[in-house]
Design goal:
This protein is of the alpha+beta class. It folds into two domains: 94 residues; 140 residues, no CATH class. Strands 1, 2, 3, 4, 5, 6 and 8 form a seven-stranded antiparallel β-sheet that branches. A two-stranded antiparallel sheet has the order 7-9. Strand 3 and strand 4 form a beta hairpin. The longest helix is centred in the first third of the chain and has 44 residues. The chain is elongated, with a radius of gyration of 26 Å.
Length: 282
Protein backbone atom coordinates (compact mmCIF):
# COMPACT_ATOMS: atom_id res chain seq x y z
CA UNK A 1 0.00 0.00 0.00
CA UNK A 2 1.19 3.52 -0.78
CA UNK A 3 2.30 5.94 1.93
CA UNK A 4 -0.76 8.14 1.39
CA UNK A 5 -2.97 5.05 1.65
CA UNK A 6 -1.33 4.08 4.95
CA UNK A 7 -1.82 7.63 6.19
CA UNK A 8 -5.54 7.52 5.41
CA UNK A 9 -5.92 4.25 7.34
CA UNK A 10 -4.49 5.70 10.56
CA UNK A 11 -6.89 6.42 13.42
CA UNK A 12 -7.53 9.91 14.74
CA UNK A 13 -5.28 9.21 17.73
CA UNK A 14 -2.46 8.01 15.47
CA UNK A 15 -2.81 11.09 13.28
CA UNK A 16 -2.68 13.31 16.37
CA UNK A 17 0.61 11.65 17.35
CA UNK A 18 1.99 12.41 13.88
CA UNK A 19 0.86 16.01 14.19
CA UNK A 20 2.28 16.50 17.70
CA UNK A 21 5.38 14.36 16.97
CA UNK A 22 5.35 13.18 20.57
CA UNK A 23 4.06 10.28 22.65
CA UNK A 24 3.10 10.53 26.33
CA UNK A 25 1.20 7.40 27.25
CA UNK A 26 0.83 4.86 30.06
CA UNK A 27 -0.71 1.67 28.64
CA UNK A 28 0.02 -2.06 28.38
CA UNK A 29 2.78 -2.91 25.92
CA UNK A 30 0.42 -4.71 23.51
CA UNK A 31 -1.80 -1.62 23.27
CA UNK A 32 1.22 0.63 22.73
CA UNK A 33 2.51 -1.60 19.93
CA UNK A 34 -0.93 -1.74 18.29
CA UNK A 35 -1.02 2.06 18.35
CA UNK A 36 2.57 2.80 17.30
CA UNK A 37 3.35 0.07 14.75
CA UNK A 38 1.08 1.48 12.00
CA UNK A 39 2.66 4.92 12.54
CA UNK A 40 6.14 3.41 12.16
CA UNK A 41 5.06 1.48 9.03
CA UNK A 42 3.70 4.67 7.50
CA UNK A 43 6.90 6.59 8.32
CA UNK A 44 9.09 3.92 6.69
CA UNK A 45 6.92 3.94 3.54
CA UNK A 46 6.72 7.74 3.48
CA UNK A 47 10.49 8.34 3.25
CA UNK A 48 10.96 7.18 -0.39
CA UNK A 49 7.52 8.51 -1.38
CA UNK A 50 8.39 11.94 0.01
CA UNK A 51 11.68 11.98 -1.88
CA UNK A 52 9.96 10.92 -5.11
CA UNK A 53 7.28 13.60 -4.72
CA UNK A 54 9.94 16.26 -4.13
CA UNK A 55 11.92 15.22 -7.21
CA UNK A 56 8.74 15.09 -9.31
CA UNK A 57 7.76 18.56 -8.12
CA UNK A 58 11.08 20.08 -9.22
CA UNK A 59 11.15 18.23 -12.56
CA UNK A 60 7.55 19.09 -13.46
CA UNK A 61 8.01 22.78 -12.68
CA UNK A 62 11.10 22.97 -14.89
CA UNK A 63 9.40 21.06 -17.72
CA UNK A 64 6.25 23.19 -17.56
CA UNK A 65 8.33 26.38 -17.83
CA UNK A 66 10.38 25.01 -20.75
CA UNK A 67 7.28 23.81 -22.62
CA UNK A 68 5.43 27.08 -21.95
CA UNK A 69 8.34 29.15 -23.30
CA UNK A 70 8.48 26.92 -26.35
CA UNK A 71 4.71 27.22 -26.85
CA UNK A 72 4.50 31.02 -26.79
CA UNK A 73 7.03 31.13 -29.61
CA UNK A 74 4.95 28.85 -31.82
CA UNK A 75 1.82 29.44 -33.87
CA UNK A 76 -1.44 27.66 -34.52
CA UNK A 77 -2.13 24.19 -33.19
CA UNK A 78 1.45 23.65 -32.02
CA UNK A 79 1.16 26.66 -29.75
CA UNK A 80 -2.19 25.47 -28.41
CA UNK A 81 -0.92 21.93 -27.76
CA UNK A 82 2.33 23.15 -26.15
CA UNK A 83 0.56 25.52 -23.75
CA UNK A 84 -1.97 22.80 -22.92
CA UNK A 85 0.86 20.41 -22.12
CA UNK A 86 2.56 23.06 -19.98
CA UNK A 87 -0.69 23.48 -18.05
CA UNK A 88 -0.98 19.72 -17.50
CA UNK A 89 2.60 19.59 -16.26
CA UNK A 90 1.87 22.45 -13.86
CA UNK A 91 -1.16 20.56 -12.49
CA UNK A 92 1.08 17.54 -11.97
CA UNK A 93 3.55 19.76 -10.11
CA UNK A 94 0.77 21.03 -7.84
CA UNK A 95 -0.33 17.46 -7.06
CA UNK A 96 3.27 16.40 -6.32
CA UNK A 97 3.75 19.48 -4.14
CA UNK A 98 0.59 18.74 -2.17
CA UNK A 99 1.71 15.14 -1.63
CA UNK A 100 5.18 16.25 -0.55
CA UNK A 101 3.82 18.79 1.95
CA UNK A 102 1.40 16.24 3.43
CA UNK A 103 4.11 13.61 3.86
CA UNK A 104 6.63 16.16 5.15
CA UNK A 105 4.19 17.40 7.79
CA UNK A 106 3.66 13.82 9.00
CA UNK A 107 7.37 12.93 9.09
CA UNK A 108 8.62 11.62 12.45
CA UNK A 109 12.02 10.48 13.68
CA UNK A 110 13.28 7.10 12.45
CA UNK A 111 13.92 6.31 16.12
CA UNK A 112 10.30 5.15 16.30
CA UNK A 113 10.80 2.25 13.88
CA UNK A 114 14.45 1.54 14.65
CA UNK A 115 14.46 1.76 18.46
CA UNK A 116 11.05 2.22 20.11
CA UNK A 117 9.16 -0.58 18.34
CA UNK A 118 11.94 -3.22 18.73
CA UNK A 119 12.40 -2.24 22.40
CA UNK A 120 8.68 -2.47 23.20
CA UNK A 121 8.51 -5.81 21.40
CA UNK A 122 11.21 -7.23 23.68
CA UNK A 123 9.86 -5.46 26.77
CA UNK A 124 6.38 -6.95 26.53
CA UNK A 125 7.86 -10.44 26.93
CA UNK A 126 8.87 -9.58 30.51
CA UNK A 127 5.95 -7.36 31.53
CA UNK A 128 2.58 -8.74 32.66
CA UNK A 129 -0.06 -8.24 29.91
CA UNK A 130 -2.17 -5.85 32.00
CA UNK A 131 0.79 -3.92 33.45
CA UNK A 132 1.11 -0.44 31.92
CA UNK A 133 4.34 0.85 30.37
CA UNK A 134 4.95 4.60 30.65
CA UNK A 135 6.42 6.29 27.58
CA UNK A 136 7.58 9.84 26.93
CA UNK A 137 8.93 10.13 23.38
CA UNK A 138 9.98 13.16 21.33
CA UNK A 139 9.62 12.23 17.66
CA UNK A 140 10.85 15.51 16.18
CA UNK A 141 14.09 15.41 14.20
CA UNK A 142 17.31 15.27 16.19
CA UNK A 143 18.52 18.39 14.39
CA UNK A 144 15.34 20.39 15.02
CA UNK A 145 15.96 24.08 15.68
CA UNK A 146 14.70 23.85 19.27
CA UNK A 147 17.45 21.30 20.04
CA UNK A 148 20.33 23.44 18.78
CA UNK A 149 22.85 24.09 21.55
CA UNK A 150 26.00 25.31 19.79
CA UNK A 151 27.27 26.59 16.45
CA UNK A 152 30.99 26.53 15.70
CA UNK A 153 31.90 28.72 12.73
CA UNK A 154 35.63 29.47 12.58
CA UNK A 155 36.30 32.80 10.90
CA UNK A 156 38.52 31.81 8.01
CA UNK A 157 39.00 33.47 4.65
CA UNK A 158 38.51 31.52 1.48
CA UNK A 159 37.94 27.78 1.25
CA UNK A 160 37.43 25.26 2.71
CA UNK A 161 34.76 26.61 5.06
CA UNK A 162 33.72 24.53 8.05
CA UNK A 163 30.55 25.00 10.12
CA UNK A 164 29.66 22.64 12.96
CA UNK A 165 26.32 22.61 14.75
CA UNK A 166 25.58 20.64 17.92
CA UNK A 167 22.11 19.45 18.96
CA UNK A 168 20.98 17.90 22.26
CA UNK A 169 18.06 15.49 21.91
CA UNK A 170 16.65 13.90 25.11
CA UNK A 171 14.07 11.97 23.13
CA UNK A 172 13.14 8.72 24.92
CA UNK A 173 12.32 7.86 28.52
CA UNK A 174 9.91 5.61 30.30
CA UNK A 175 9.26 3.06 33.02
CA UNK A 176 7.81 -0.40 33.48
CA UNK A 177 7.50 -3.18 36.04
CA UNK A 178 8.63 -6.66 35.04
CA UNK A 179 6.64 -9.76 35.93
CA UNK A 180 9.25 -10.58 38.61
CA UNK A 181 8.55 -7.27 40.37
CA UNK A 182 11.66 -5.46 39.13
CA UNK A 183 11.03 -1.77 38.48
CA UNK A 184 12.69 -0.37 35.35
CA UNK A 185 13.33 3.23 34.33
CA UNK A 186 15.29 4.37 31.28
CA UNK A 187 16.35 7.50 29.44
CA UNK A 188 18.05 8.01 26.07
CA UNK A 189 19.75 11.29 25.16
CA UNK A 190 21.37 11.80 21.76
CA UNK A 191 23.93 14.47 20.96
CA UNK A 192 24.20 15.22 17.24
CA UNK A 193 27.25 16.88 15.73
CA UNK A 194 26.59 18.07 12.16
CA UNK A 195 29.60 19.28 10.18
CA UNK A 196 29.20 21.06 6.85
CA UNK A 197 32.34 21.48 4.77
CA UNK A 198 32.31 23.74 1.71
CA UNK A 199 35.15 23.37 -0.81
CA UNK A 200 36.08 24.99 -4.11
CA UNK A 201 38.01 23.01 -6.68
CA UNK A 202 40.61 24.54 -9.05
CA UNK A 203 37.91 25.08 -11.69
CA UNK A 204 35.92 27.23 -9.28
CA UNK A 205 33.13 24.71 -8.68
CA UNK A 206 31.81 24.77 -5.13
CA UNK A 207 30.83 21.56 -3.36
CA UNK A 208 29.37 21.04 0.11
CA UNK A 209 29.61 17.85 2.14
CA UNK A 210 27.64 17.16 5.32
CA UNK A 211 28.66 14.62 7.96
CA UNK A 212 26.54 13.75 11.01
CA UNK A 213 27.82 11.92 14.08
CA UNK A 214 25.63 10.86 17.00
CA UNK A 215 26.64 10.20 20.58
CA UNK A 216 23.98 8.25 22.45
CA UNK A 217 23.84 8.33 26.26
CA UNK A 218 21.59 5.66 27.76
CA UNK A 219 20.77 5.44 31.47
CA UNK A 220 18.87 2.64 33.15
CA UNK A 221 17.73 2.30 36.76
CA UNK A 222 16.53 -1.08 38.03
CA UNK A 223 15.00 -1.65 41.47
CA UNK A 224 15.10 -5.38 42.25
CA UNK A 225 12.79 -6.84 44.94
CA UNK A 226 15.08 -8.40 47.54
CA UNK A 227 12.65 -11.28 48.10
CA UNK A 228 13.51 -12.46 44.57
CA UNK A 229 17.03 -11.07 44.04
CA UNK A 230 19.97 -10.76 46.38
CA UNK A 231 22.45 -7.96 45.63
CA UNK A 232 26.01 -9.13 45.05
CA UNK A 233 27.45 -6.02 46.67
CA UNK A 234 26.43 -3.32 49.17
CA UNK A 235 23.44 -5.17 50.62
CA UNK A 236 21.39 -3.25 53.16
CA UNK A 237 19.64 -5.49 55.72
CA UNK A 238 15.88 -5.18 55.67
CA UNK A 239 15.57 -3.17 52.46
CA UNK A 240 12.69 -4.21 50.17
CA UNK A 241 14.44 -3.27 46.96
CA UNK A 242 18.00 -3.12 45.72
CA UNK A 243 18.58 -0.34 43.19
CA UNK A 244 21.13 -0.63 40.39
CA UNK A 245 22.01 2.31 38.15
CA UNK A 246 23.72 1.71 34.83
CA UNK A 247 24.87 3.95 32.00
CA UNK A 248 26.41 3.48 28.59
CA UNK A 249 27.65 5.82 25.88
CA UNK A 250 28.49 5.16 22.27
CA UNK A 251 29.27 7.13 19.11
CA UNK A 252 28.28 6.30 15.57
CA UNK A 253 26.70 7.39 12.32
CA UNK A 254 23.19 8.84 12.36
CA UNK A 255 22.02 6.08 9.99
CA UNK A 256 22.74 3.33 12.56
CA UNK A 257 21.25 4.37 15.93
CA UNK A 258 22.50 2.32 18.89
CA UNK A 259 19.79 3.04 21.46
CA UNK A 260 18.02 -0.32 21.16
CA UNK A 261 20.99 -2.67 21.68
CA UNK A 262 22.33 -0.38 24.41
CA UNK A 263 19.05 -0.56 26.35
CA UNK A 264 18.94 -4.35 26.08
CA UNK A 265 22.61 -4.68 27.11
CA UNK A 266 22.14 -2.45 30.17
CA UNK A 267 19.08 -4.38 31.38
CA UNK A 268 20.99 -7.64 30.97
CA UNK A 269 23.92 -6.09 32.90
CA UNK A 270 21.53 -5.17 35.69
CA UNK A 271 20.45 -8.77 36.15
CA UNK A 272 24.08 -9.85 36.18
CA UNK A 273 24.63 -7.64 39.23
CA UNK A 274 22.15 -9.59 41.38
CA UNK A 275 21.68 -13.23 42.34
CA UNK A 276 18.26 -14.76 41.74
CA UNK A 277 16.63 -16.22 44.81
CA UNK A 278 14.59 -19.37 44.72
CA UNK A 279 11.15 -18.65 43.27
CA UNK A 280 12.18 -15.64 41.19
CA UNK A 281 9.78 -15.27 38.24
CA UNK A 282 12.35 -14.35 35.58
Amino acid sequence: MSATGLLRKLSDEQKSILAAKSVKLNRPADELLALLKPIAAFDVAAAPARKQAGCSLAALIVLSVVVAIYGVNQEGNLRFVSLGLAGALLVGAIISGTTWRKLQAADVSDNLSKIVIPFLTILREDVAPAEPVALDIDLTAGDAKKKLTQTINPKTKGYPKLVTTVYLDPWFEGSAVFADGTQLKWKVVDRLRVTKKTKKNPRGKIKMKTKTKVRSDVRVTMAFPTKHYAPKHNAVPGEKRHEVKLAKRTKGAAETPQGFPMLIDLIADGYRKVNAQKGAAR
